[in-house]
Design goal:
Elements lengths: L2 H12 L4 H14 L4 H8 L6 H12 L1 H17 L5 H28 L6 H16 L1 H9 L50 H99 L2
Helix pairs in contact: 1-3, 2-3, 4-5, 4-6, 4-7, 5-6, 5-7, 6-7, 7-8
Length: about 300
């Protein structure tokens, strides 16, 4: 096995670990490989993934079929958008957002099962990375590797430097090894028999930890709800402002229409008077002509 292949295999193992275990495990691997200085140096350079990158890597390993479907749908949407008009493209964008939002929730759920709190900001980065995988084929390859070190962002137009966010260059084209995880069980309590106070204290500490976890989760949900309310309030104010402007414009147009109607009525009266005067003048001319003709 070549050095690159060995490094890729080691990276695949390290990036499958819980985030807090990455650095100790990497350093231990470096010590283990001290006889192979080249490989040890390469392993030492492996970067610890950001929280968002770790969540995506976790999702890729736990739900590889789901990731393949997302990437496949992204490719289909890219092909379908050729020749679409503006309305169709907007509908396509909404579909893509709905899909990435749903998948992001699944990834957050997996991370939560692993005891990792995913904040709103991290969730946005996870969704941006999954969106990038749908928009850009190179980003899709980076995501599928399960060796991300940082979140991705793509517009579907400009090129993305995916090599900067994967552990090793060979990651592009590599598929992460699927893993299966189990939810952590309840902590074991070690109480000295007969020590009732110690037992109660550990029970209280366990209850406090569970309560704090619930507070953290609800705090995140509350922050997201507050943000959604603020955005909708701003949107409501904007729409109301537009409605007020339209009402003002309508009022001006109605007033202008009334003035025009009055002017039209006056013009029609003047038209009638002019027609009557013209008719009288024609009649007078015709009478004068007949009189002149009669005189020879």
């Amino acid at each position: 096995m070549s050095t690159d292949e060995q490094l890729l295999s080691i990276a695949d193992e390290l990036y499958a670990l819980p985030q807090e275990e990455f650095t100790p495990a990497r350093d231990a691997k470096v010590r283990e490989l001290k006889a192979d200085k080249e490989l040890a140096a390469a392993v030492k350079k492996l970067k610890k993934p950001s929280v968002a990158a770790w969540v995506v890597n976790l999702f890729v390993r736990r739900e590889p079929d789901q990731v393949d479907q997302v990437i496949g749908v992204g490719q289909a949407l890219r092909e379908a958008q050729e020749g679409m008009d503006g309305a169709e493209l907007r509908a396509l964008t909404r579909q893509r957002r709905q899909l990435t939002s749903a998948v992001t929730q699944q990834a957050r759920s997996l991370a939560r099962d692993e005891g990792v709190k995913v904040t709103g900001a991290v969730s946005d980065q996870v969704e941006a990375t999954l969106t990038a995988a749908m928009l850009d084929p190179e980003c899709a390859r980076a995501v599928r590797s399960g060796l991300l070190t940082a979140a991705l962002s793509a517009t579907g137009v400009d090129a993305v430097d995916v090599a900067a966010v994967v552990a090793v260059p060979e990651a592009l084209g590599f598929s992460a090894t699927p893993t299966s995880g189990t939810a952590p069980g309840p902590p074991e309590l070690h109480v000295v028999p007969g020590d009732e106070n110690a037992r109660r204290r550990e029970e209280a500490e366990t209850a406090l930890a569970a309560a704090q976890e619930a507070v953290d989760e609800t705090e995140t949900a509350l922050a997201e709800a507050n943000r959604a309310v603020a955005e909708l309030q701003a949107r409501s104010l904007q729409i109301q402002s537009e409605i007020d402007e339209l009402r003002r414009t309508l009022s001006e147009r109605e007033a202008s229409a009334e003035e025009t109607d009055e002017e039209l009525e006056e013009a029609e009266d003047a038209q009638g008077e002019a027609e009557a005067a013209h008719s009288a003048a024609v009649k007078t001319r015709d009478t004068a002509r007949h009189t002149l003709d009669a005189l020879g």
